[in-house]
Structure formats: structure tokens, C-alpha cells
Amino acid sequence: MHLRLPCPACGWAEKRAExxxxxxxxxxxATLTAVCTDHGDYEVTVIPEDNAYIDxxxxxxxxxxxxxxxxxxxTLPVMVKGGDWAPGCQLVDxxxxxxxxxxxxxxxxxxMILTDTGAKLSKSLIRDxxxxxxxxxxxxxxxxxxxxxxxxxxxxxMVWLVRLMLSDPKHFYRSYTTLEVDRLxxxxxxTPTSPPRARHMNLYRRYFDLVVSGRKAIEVxxxxxxxxxxxxxxxxxxxxxxxxxxxxxxxxxxxxSFEEMLDTEGPANVNPDSPRExxxxxxxxxxxxxxxxxxxxxxxxxxx
Length: 304
Fold this sequence. Notes:
Blueprint: E1 3-4, E2 21-25, E3 30-36, E4 40-46, E5 55-56, H1 58-70, E6 78-82, H2 86-98, E7 106-110, E8 113-114, H3 123-127, H4 139-142, H5 151-166, E9 176-177, H6 178-186, E10 198-202, H7 205-213, E11 218-222, E12 235-240, E13 243-255, H8 258-265, H9 267-270, H10 276-286, H11 289-292, E14 296-303
């Protein structure tokens, strides 16, 4: 049985589960036995309320994962796998054929990243200091936060690399060494004419028209997690229906309340057509007390 349950005493499990046995199965439970090289025989009962760890062999794990995804009628599941999994998927397809009713999801096989010896790049082994980083393995290949630049620049680089790979099918029929990936990324051409990456924000029509006319200098938001890193120099694309307006952030100020924000920034900069108390009431109709408690952002903007 290709089902592994770690030893309760040490957490070790047989790689291929040669001595794992199912001894009882009920409507909502299963009891299995296995053998630990250090602690001998052990027994594990799995129930829905328990936190027992079950490790399926890779092939079975992929079958379960793909059948669950393929059974979701409201979505189009697409599995993205490394090119080394192409042969293994033939076995998964055979299992799908035996289990009627659900077809395998679409799959995309990506090129593998190899070391100088031809072995598959293993980030986990390098992080655990079990093997040395191969030639050309830059820090960002092992940890994206080590990228020498901004997050936007990293995303641009990754999108550029994906576009390069998609430009010719032959790129998906080979693998790449870390040296070659580093060379490709170093040779990346940056096109200054590309449109700036912008955050998308929806606006009510009355506020959108003020932004378009240039009369609204301050946009008010609360500090959701996705806005915590908003900073001067970034871009926002406001949308109202099919209309859009691109602005650049000049300044971001943070306040504890909407009153503090209006008193500091000035109501006319937020909405020149509305008095302070009316603005405060309108803002609080949009953002309740629990949202205001997150923190208030005053975003100074200018049209691009």
C-alpha cells in the first residue's frame, strides 16, 4: 500500500511503505499498522477529527489532486508540472481511464532547471546545506526576496522569461541549467515604452469624474493588506464601468480616523463639491467602523 504514516515516536516513515497494512476500515475511520526501524511496530487510526498525517506516494497524490480539481465543474483546472513529470502522467491517465466519469485536467509541462551536472536543481537540499549551490545559481533563484531590485522589477523579469519560453514550443522540449537561466535574465532587454504597472481600483462615478477632471487631489482608502506597501511613484488605474484613468501616487499619508484625515488633508482636496460633514458621512457609509480601525490612507494623486 503506497500510503505512509509517520512513526508517532520519531516521525520516520518507510519511503515506499512496504510494511504498511490496512487492518480495519469503517465509514469514518481507518486503522493501519507500519514498522519503524527504531521503534518497531506501530498503529495509527485515522478519523476526520484527528490531525494524523498521511503521506501518499507521489503518483497517488497526483491522482487524488487531479481528480479533485477535475471534478469542479465551475472552473477550468490547469495543472502546471515540471517536464520530468511527463512520463509519470501516463500512469495517472491510465488510472483516470479506470475511474469513469471525470477526465484529466489540462496540463502544462514547464522546462526543468538543472545544475551543471545535469541533476535537477533542488532548492531544499541547498537550503539544508546538503549540496552546494551549482555554478550560476543566483540567490534569487533560491529565494525570490533576494532579487536585486523591486518587486515590480522581479515580476517584469519573470513575465519576460515566461514570454520568451512561450515564444517557441521548442523551449518546452529542453531543460535549462542555472548558468543559462542567469545568462537569459542578464540579457533581458527593458523597454522603457512599456506601460507602467498599475494597481486597479474601482471608483464611484462622482469620484471618478473628479479624478478625470483633475479636481480630486486626495483619494481615501483604508489600509487593507494589499495597500500596506503603497508608496509614492507607484501607479493606480481607476475604473468606473468601462472607463479608466491612470494616475501616479505623489504621497501616501496614514491616519487613525477619517476625521483626522479630513482635518489634515482638507475636505476640498478629497471632494471639492461636498462639505466636510457630508464627506465624512459618505465615507463611513462605504467603510464601517471595523474597516476604519485598519487605518486610513490619504493618497495624493496626479493624472498621467
